[in-house]
Specification:
Shape: globular
Strand order of the largest sheet: 4-3-5-6-7-8
Distance between the termini: 58 Å
Largest sheet: 6 strands, mixed
Radius of gyration: 23 Å
Structural class: alpha/beta
Oligomer: single chain
Order of helices and strands: HHHEEHEHEHEHEHEEEEEEEEEHEEHEHE
Number of strands: 19
Length: 475
């Protein structure tokens, strides 16, 4: 078996990729509803695409294309097909800021690849054969992958895993779901060396341990799955863990995608997000407007191509994020694969609120750097009444609609739902509103809530710090 993470050179990797991609393309041209039509309209035939070097000849697929008809991205096998290529193993869901969750199907063939992908993720992140994983992802209404794929990753690496099942008890099955103190008890009993989940919940768990005087000296790794996780937040989480007894905790950040059923991960801090399965995925960077391929190191729109899939298949799929790629061998681990340099940013970039531009990453850094904030979700929306105020929570000096907005003007509102780290935090709303206003010149409406708030708990594993709800319905 070829270890495609550590081949001698790109020529060797390209040969491996082309072999797998050829088999995928054969099936796409024959059985893929969306691409059969798209490629025919582009007047591209199977012989026109010989390998990854010809990817630039294919049109770019947008997220809108996928969400409008996700079933058209699933290979439609002949009725007589009964192999592992055609047997559906599971269906996960991906969702954007709006719209119903879209199914992402994996066959038995794909599931073996998913296990290999997740095993490589653990290899790159420094997992050891004596590790124990505490799965801190909650169950969600629609399977988004985080909970299940954590269990799969442990299986692929032959590691014990404990599903802590955080969250409110299930209404039908009250024994399913554990409160924060119960999760802390599970951590004490099982002594995990790896905490894997959304960092805001891990931070809440660690804060509760400190409050109760509970030590977690076994923890050596944290796998943080979230968008917009800055260096300040990483340092704060490591410091919190040291306060509860962890000797030298390392926080490993990932760039996740439902379309991968896994993540691009760091082998060490600052080394970039590695493509852990270069035989399964190919990444490109293109100009966001012209879709012209860009050189390594240039920032552009990230594209993902499935090289070896049999369920849902995507070619040159625009992830919606901007980033920079390098194909140089990693100087730290020696992997030869694409790596994203720096932190990817959303293609939409800054969000304009009442005439002010807000960087979602900067907003996340500001709020999560506050010890009293465990988690949050920010939205920008239209006020219910065009001429209504926000009870003192608008922009000072001009109102939420912007300077000089008329009485009947439609006004923007920045609303932030905040789950505090504990009860009785008097003055937190006012303090946060003042901090946000000082930085962004927009005074938000702060609403205190809990981690079980559906707006927070139901987001899946790719958290967008700031959602623009004005795109859903304009007055």
């Amino acid at each position: 078996m070829v270890d495609t993470l550590f081949l001698d050179d790109w020529d060797a990797l390209t040969r491996e990729r082309d072999t797998r991609f050829a088999a995928t393309l054969d099936r796409v041209f024959a059985y893929h509803p969306f691409y059969k039509d798209l490629l025919a309209r582009a007047k591209l035939r199977r012989r026109d695409i010989k390998g990854v070097a010809d990817l630039a000849r294919l049109p770019v697929t947008t997220r809108k294309d996928y969400l409008e008809n996700p079933h058209a991205f699933i290979l439609t096998w002949p009725d007589a097909a009964t192999s592992d290529e055609s047997s559906v193993w599971d269906v996960m869901y991906t969702s954007g800021p709006s719209g119903a969750p879209a199914p992402f199907a994996s066959t038995s063939y794909d599931f073996v690849n998913i296990l290999a992908l997740n095993r490589n993720m653990l290899r790159l992140r420094g997992a050891r054969e004596d590790d124990r994983i505490l799965n801190l992802f909650p169950l969600t209404r629609h399977p988004h992958g985080a909970f299940a794929r954590t269990m799969n990753a442990a299986a692929a690496f032959n590691l014990p895993v404990i599903a802590a099942m955080p969250g409110a008890p299930n209404a039908r099955q009250p024994d399913i779901g554990n409160a924060l103190d119960q999760v802390l008890e599970i951590a004490q009993q099982t002594r995990p060396t790896i905490l894997w989940g959304v960092p805001s919940y891990i931070r809440e768990l660690v804060a509760r341990a400190a409050e109760k005087g509970v030590k977690l000296p076994w923890v050596r790794l944290v796998f943080a799955s979230v968008d917009g996780f800055g260096e300040g937040m990483r340092a704060d989480l490591a410091a919190d863990l040291r306060r509860v007894g962890a000797e030298d905790p390392q926080v490993s950040v990932s760039y996740g995608a439902s379309e991968m059923q896994g993540s691009m991960v760091e082998c060490a801090r600052g080394t970039g997000f590695h493509n852990p399965a270069p035989d399964q995925f190919c990444f490109e960077v293109v100009d966001p407007d012209t879709h012209k391929p860009l050189e390594d190191g240039e920032e552009g729109l990230l594209l993902l191509t499935h090289l070896d899939r049999r369920g849902t298949v995507m070619l040159r799929y625009a992830t919606g994020d901007m980033g920079r790629l390098t194909r140089e061998r990693c100087p730290h681990c020696g992997a030869l694969t694409e790596r994203i340099i720096g932190q990817p940013s959303h293609h939409d970039g800054f969000v304009k609120v009442a005439g002010r531009l807000i960087d979602p990453q900067a907003l996340a850094d500001l709020l999560l750097a506050t010890d009293e904030v465990a988690d949050f979700q920010a939205v920008v929306e239209y006020e219910d009444k065009p001429d209504g105020g926000v009870g003192g929570s608008g922009i000072r000096g001009g109102g939420v609609g912007g300077k000089g907005a008329g009485k009947n003007a439609v006004r923007d509102r920045l609303r932030i739902r905040v789950a505090p780290t504990g009860p009785g935090l008097a003055g937190l709303s006012k303090m946060l509103a003042e901090h946000v206003e000082a930085v962004f010149e927009v005074r938000p409406l702060i609403e205190l809530t809990s981690a079980q708030d559906p707006m927070l708990a139901g987001r899946g594993w790719r958290v967008r710090p700031l959602l623009d709800l004005r795109k859903k319905k304009r007055p």
